[in-house]
Amino acid sequence: MKNKMVRSVAASLLAAVVVTGCGSTNSQSGMQGHSMHGSMMGAMEAATAAADLRVNLNALLGEHMLIAAVATSHALGGREIPFKGAVAGLDANSGDIAKAIGSVYGPDAEKAFLPLWQKHIGFVVDYTAGVAAKDKAKQDKAVNDLIGYADDFGAFINSANPNLAKSAVAELVKGHILTLKDVIDAQAAGDWPKAYSAIRSAYGHMHMIGDPLAAAIAKQFPQKFPGSADSPVANLRNTLNLALREHTILAAMATGSALGGRTAEFNAAANAVDGNSIDISKAIGSVYGPDAEKAFLSLWRKHIGFVVDYTTGLAAKDKAKQDKAVKNLTGYADDFGAFLSAANPNLPKSAVAELVKGHILTLKDVVDAQAAKEWPKVYSNLRLAAGHMAMIADPLGMAIAMQFPERFAQR
After folding, report:
1. Helices 49-76 and 375-388 sit at what angle, rounded to 10 degrees?
2. Which one of 126, 167, 212, 326 has the lowest number of neighbouring Cβ atoms within 10 Å?
3. String of b and e for 318-344 (b: at least 16 CB within 10 Å)?
4. Is the Cβ–Cβ distance between 8 and 22 less than 8 Å?
């Protein structure tokens, strides 16, 4: 099912190293050899190192939050093997965040950062265990440890970059801790609508750490990170990347709960996916108007329905239903390519369709691993699928900037 082009894309995603050193997928490297690459090169030059830094830090921090939420859900549900798989994914993400720090400040900083970052994950696990055991003393101790950790983290970052005040960083990290705590509390209560609302809020908070961190690094090393991290085109890229990555991970949360027979959680996850869909359509509508927003939302929701069909086919071991869903998804990719190409001549229909097929196939790999209960594979596939979304978000952002240069200037 995976054609040569998609295998090539996946290989480039695994091999690419961000020019900024952020340990995430570099959109330009990932597009080498792709049919859109040549036509987009001029626009890609506008994606300065500072903007890349911001996008990729936010990608890693947002991924951390969402995988942490999956891990705590498994822990509270007593699903030990899936929990261990999520923790492995979380560890891999932590390693990438540490590499991002090391790429800027050197190997000693990377080595010091990793155990410090992992320390707060341990405290979150302690809090989750306390909640599961209804052990108030353990919960309180974990919260106190996390608050103290925020101060330590602020001191670490401030020592590396004087543009980031210790107290300001500590407050932002406390915000991360408290929003994640809200997720865990709602999960423990079985209040799934509240849990997924809290998950989306906590995910949205992470760019409040990533944005100032990227800006401060760019200010500290202007020659290494030239340009503006908050220009209109950088803002657009950041918005699209965050929304599309959230889509992928929320979709995986939904399919995981569906295959696990957790109906109440699935319904809440599906509603969260739809809330994300509305946000993506609003981003499109902000550029192309309300009619395009409405048309986009309907089209975008269509592929989510096909993913649900595929998942239910897997759960029922209904090969015919699975095959029909895959066929529908492949046809959808062509329809989506035609839609975007009609709106923006800088986006060739066939190229967009191939990138969307990549999204479909990488998400399918996640769902297949979930159904097979291959938990380490689930989270390695999930990180790959989330990373692939940059290959849609970045070309889309650049094409819009090319189409409307007066609105999306690079400062």
Report:
1. 150
2. 167
3. eeebbeebbebbbebbbebbebbbebb
4. no
- Give the predicted TM-score (pTM) of the model: 0.89
User: Can you say whether residue 122 is alpha, beta or left, with left for phi > 0 and alpha for psi between -120 and 50 degrees?
Assistant: alpha
Three-state DSSP at 190 gives coil
Label residue 261 exposed, middle or buried (CB < 10 Å: 0-12, 13-18, 19+): exposed
Max CA pair span of the chain:
61
Q: Using one digit for the tens of pLDDT, what is the confidence trace for 157-166?
A: 999 999 999 9
Could you tell me which residues come within 8 angstroms of residue 108 by beta carbon, excluding any fewer than 6 positions away?
Answer: none
Nearest to 346 by CA among 387, 276, 401, 411: 401
In a 3-state reduction of DSSP, which class is residue 225? coil
- Of 369, 310, 392, 399, nearest to 9 (Cα)? 392
Encoded amino acid at 312, one letter? T
Encode pLDDT of 208-228 as tens digits.
Answer: 999 999 999 999 999 999 989
Q: State the Cα–Cα distance between residues 151 and 260, nearest whole angstrom.
A: 39
